[in-house]
């Protein structure tokens, strides 16, 4: 028996077990990217339109920070890569993160890997099988994107370069997740480490692209964009992600050889002999379980707010010399350019910060399937109280995450302006998204109580809200579909004034969804 014995069998097992999940990830990313590309082609039908749009981007630090370096914007392919490339790269990164973590660390934490290893299975076979599947998913996404872009009339070599860059970036994050899975014995912490890598990569790329581009070489997302799809099609940067992936494989194999199955490289700290008084309550336990995730999401959103706040003032400088009609298009509802930018930034931070709320509610399902919920519910703790404690932490923690995003945005922007009064104003604007985030948590809780096996679908709903928030105009989505997203009902402060009625309606909806989920959990079997 070698260290890779039974790898092929495990690959078939993963494909059989996750055939629907794999199909949804691949088809969803490809469909979104290709339909967005087709939408961009409709917006810029002539070369004059492309030239005019390219002039709006050159030197626009905010647009570059959001999308990436302005490369080949005078061509339709370059415009497509600029407007959809960064989002697509992040999506394949998240796909690799979730899929590899699910089939490595989560298998160990649940104890299933120990049963598998009891058979004739090599030491590295489970990790190799997971990597083969995830790398294959990235290859399929890249190939489908290249074919899809070429099919809608984009340049063939550029389409192929774009597909390769997407596949390469997704493969890099598979390697990073493979290493993270060796560090800790907790699946959520491993996923959080890999997710932090995605966030840091985006931030480093944004800062680097706003500068001279040198810093972007430190970001895996930047490596994909350095291939310049539709703008010269440079393939040699592909060596960097491939070499980095090979290094991650070597490091993951070395670390895996130095630890026991189920254990992590970093052993968990031994707890105190006696628990604090607060840990003896369901709410105290929920806070203890979620505090690490809260710190991670809050820190990430804070850092992103600082980055966007530092470039906010450049937006006004850029459009100062533009025609008044163009300024009216960029501004929302007659608001200033900077206020529109700040409002859009807060929407991004709210969507990202919603990940904490969704993850916090999903922890209920994790505790249930890991059989840790039953001992708690065997005590005088009622199901209502247990669920309500986790929901309270999800909503309260979301307020902290949103406030952290507003703090970062207001602090950086206030320092640039010399007006620290921006801090409380931007924090208040950010907290305006709390009802929308609470609705997202309510959807997760309703699924947990009524359809527990489908609770993961809430991530798809969050992704759909992201698409509606930023691609609704591009995809020409109908009004009824846009209304599905709770974020569409939140005023884009400070560009728009706060209206209490939609916020109160969303709060009532969140309470209703949470109550339905709690009632469903109370009437079904645990486990």
Outline the structure in words.
This protein is mainly α and 527 residues long. 74% of the residues lie in helices and 0% in strands. The chain is built from 22 helices and no strands. The chain has helices at 7-17, 19-43, 47-57, 61-67, 76-103, 105-110, 112-117, 125-151, 156-183, 187-210, 220-225, 239-256, 282-319, 324-330, 337-369, 373-377, 383-417, 422-431, 434-450, 457-475, 479-482, 500-523. Helix 1 packs across helix 8 and helix 15 runs parallel beside helix 19. It is globular and about 70 Å long. The relative contact order is 0.09. The model has no long low-confidence stretch (mean pLDDT 86).
Number of helices: 22
Characterize the main sheet: none
Mean of pLDDT:
86
Fraction of residues in β-strands: under 5%
**Span between termini:** 37 Å
| Strand-pairing-aware structural class | mainly alpha
Number of strands: 0
Give the topology string: H per helix, E per strand.
HHHHHHHHHHHHHHHHHHHHHH
